[in-house]
Amino acid sequence: MEPLLVRACRREPVERTPVWFMRQAGRSLPEYRELRKQYGLFEIARNPDLCAEVTLQPVRRHDVDAAVMFADIMLPVLGMGVDVELVENVGPVVAEPVRSAADVERLAVPEPEEAVPWVLESVRLVREALRGDQAVIGFAGGPFTVAGYLIEGKPTREFKLTKACMYGQPQVWHALMDKLAETFAAYVAACARAGADAIQLFDSWAGALSVDDYREFAAPYSSRLLEAVDVPTIHFATGDAHLLEERAEAGGDVIGVDWRLPLDAAWERVGFDRGIQGNLDGAALLGPWERAAAGAEEVLRRAGGRPGHIFNLGHGVLPETDPADLRRLVELVHERTLVPA
Length: 341
Fold this sequence. Notes:
Layout: H1 4-9, H2 30-36, H3 41-46, H4 48-62, E1 66-68, H5 75-78, E2 84-87, E3 91-94, H6 101-106, H7 112-115, H8 117-129, E4 135-141, H9 143-152, H10 160-168, H11 170-194, E5 198-202, H12 211-217, H13 219-226, E6 233-236, H14 244-250, E7 254-256, H15 263-270, E8 275-280, H16 289-303, E9 309-313, H17 323-337
Parallel strand pairs: 1-4, 4-5, 5-6, 6-7, 7-8, 8-9
Antiparallel strand pairs: 2-3
Helix pairs in contact: 4-8, 9-10, 9-11, 10-11, 11-13, 13-14, 16-17
């Protein structure tokens, strides 16, 4: 049996709309918070049994159609020789930012089987534990987003140092992006070989770029990642309504969209020859259930029953979300979209 999500990615007819949630594994689940009292995030990621358990927790609790691997977009850079610490309520902090040609030269391009074998074993364990109709989603950060963390040294919304590198040292920028693209392409390909049924590219901060800058400095490298696997790919970013057509042009069987645009308007812009993923505002789940349910109904109405829709939030699950409401949301989407046998 092929996973429901895989068939939807190919825009094949499906018996119901598949549902999964970005950040479904982790912050909103009490069983995960219990584990975090004993283990750090990287500790969990490096322990295949623990990683598989955390990845599977929301599948059991919510009955979603896919397990997204519990990981972090910075994991592949560990094998490049970068010292990264995940700081609570801050995000990835890089001990020695990458800002010069010499810094880029020092970065390795590792083989994933040697650098992150625990990630690949976790993928295998999750694939073995799922039903045939459920998918394993592996993921990677977009090269632009990861480069921003490496150059800035920590999360930012302004990207001043990043853009200074792009404009003032383009040779350094492209050398860094080339190494990131090579490393991350090998990483997602290894995840697919290990059993990932689909790969999602999170280019979370691509919206910080203009159209011209995205074309010159980011799109070619995202394309390399999306072309590196022979499983379906999902291409997601947030806050990039001005880049929607550009992101679709860069690649992806499915274009993930945030909550800022109506789903049908976004789908028309990327083309109905692509699948689309989204796009209920996750904050709707912090209010009355009736409002979240109405929002989900509206997303489904805008999807119009076309093949290729994957239901998701317009960003990650917020930590304050009631897990019971996520389960109700899955049940609602499955019930409303069920095709009679």
